[in-house]
Amino acid sequence: MSRPHEIRQRKKAISIALFVGSLMLVAKIGAYFLTSSAAILSDALESVVHIFATSIAFYSIIVSSRPPDRDHPYGHGKVEFFSAGLEGMLIIIAAIVIMFEAVRGMIVGRELQNLDWGMYIIAGASAVNLVLGLYLVRMGKKTDSLTLIADGKHVLTDFYTSGGVIAGLLIVYVTGWEVLDPLVAIAVALNILYSGGKLIRESVGGLMNESDTQLLADMVDRLNEQKREPWIDIHQLRSWRSGDKHYIDFHLTMPYYWDVKTSHDEQLIVAESLKDLMDGKAEVLIHIDPCEPSCCKFCQMSDCHVRKEEFKGWTPWTVEHAMGPPGYK
What we know:
Layout: H1 4-35, H2 38-64, H3 79-108, H4 115-143, H5 146-175, H6 180-207, H7 213-225, E1 233-242, E2 245-254, H8 260-277, E3 282-290, H9 319-323
Parallel strand pairs: 2-3
Antiparallel strand pairs: 1-2
Helix pairs in contact: 1-2, 1-4, 2-3, 2-5, 2-6, 3-5, 3-6, 4-5, 5-6, 7-8
């Protein structure tokens, strides 16, 4: 479960994002009415999406911070994946609207004006978005919030979008080629379409409990580093995430002749090792399997009185081994 100070930090960060995003939206809409630029309109439409997405993110953070209850024994953290996916869908909708408006502008035509002032306004908004996006991503990583990270990436996408808009408008301003304005808007739309697709992909992966290969590798490395003699084998390792909490389960093979308390005490050592790796934000469920005679050749128990075969050597575990069935069967 998230710590109270982390929850406060998340709420503060998303509140700042909502306030600053609203100001940037007003500035960009003003720039559009000042210039009649399709490219600036595309930038403003993305800011509209950002306001809606940030509002959803704010709600998501409130819900995900609630503790587990009878109806939600694993907590409410999954809502963050839903929030990120919805934000991605809104980005895609914005991209489609932008392309529609750009094509319509090419057909109907627009008379551009005050491009210099429009570029000044967009440049200022872009600088603010850069600072805000970096802040949100940093706070998201600090508090382990997918919602903040997703919102920060969206804001950074807005920054890159604004950079492309400024570059395109500068060319239009210098050359007078007004046809470039809707083309820039289409390029912007394609860029944010890609960003929206990535967000949806990450969201679906989280909702489907997709394996995090790097996280699994880190866990296996930790177990290899701290391995004790009774940890004969690990297999069927799985992990999934809900909000900032990780749920881990696997099978651990230990001496069959140990009593329940001894096995349980050793199991707690394994679990605490992995919890420390996750900064305490993990629940670890370990199923104890009794060793078999086929384990003897790689079992490191030095005082085993029932050994059937000489120890021949132990090979450090890999992710593939840990996720698979027991190797001694």
